[in-house]
Amino acid sequence: MNLSDIQIRSATDPAFRAALLDDPRAVFAGLGVEVPDGITITVEESTPTEFVLAIPPVVPDDVPLDDDALAAASGGTTPVTFTSIVPLGASAAVGVGFVLGKIF
Q1: What distance, in Å, lies between the first and last C-alpha atoms of the chain?
Q2: Is the CB of residue 96 less than 8 Å from the CB of residue 81?
Q3: SS3 state of residue 88
Q4: Closest CA to 60 of 75, 76, 74, 71
Q5: From CA 11, how far away is CA 93, in angstroms rounded?
Q6: Closest CA to 83 of 2, 4, 9
Q7: CB of 93 within 8 A of CB of 11?
Q8: Listed residue (3, 51, 57) closest to 27, CA to CA
Q9: CA distances from residue 8 to 37, 38, 42, 57, 93 in whole angstroms, order as listed
Q10: Which residues, in sequence order, are bridge partners of residue 63?
Q11: Residue 21: alpha-carbon gap to chain centroid
Q12: How far apart are CA 22 and CA 41, in angstroms?
């Protein structure tokens, strides 16, 4: 499951959404995603009149890359983002992908 799948499920599954808002670390663990210690997960809801956009941290130009990261970044180390907003009645489903080969 990737971040887009989590966003879609949270928009369509009220119990999953409530769990994600209550304890995101437990939800990620239940999905098999290990969140490293020291990483805080903050989940915020967009509303029909407010769009919440999370942006990734700045990636310095001099980030050392191991072989796996180098293979994944064949075009460079700048993160690639994809954003879409699809109206769903009075609200919007938002998908933001951050591509570095891993969620964290």
Answers
A1: 14
A2: yes
A3: strand
A4: 76
A5: 7
A6: 4
A7: yes
A8: 3
A9: 26, 27, 17, 23, 7
A10: none
A11: 14
A12: 11
pLDDT digit string, tens, across residues 55-73:
888 878 887 777 877 777 6
pLDDT for 11 equals 92
DSSP letters along 64-78, please?
Answer: ---HHHHHHTTT-SS
User: One-letter amino acid identity for 12?
Assistant: T
Q: Which two tokens mark 59?
A: 């990636």
Q: Which amino acid is at 63?
A: V
Backbone angles phi, psi at 45, to 5 degrees: -95, 135
pLDDT digits (tens, 9 = 90+) for 67-91: 877 777 665 555 544 444 444 433 3
pLDDT digits (tens, 9 = 90+) for 5-38: 899 999 999 999 999 999 999 999 999 888 898 9
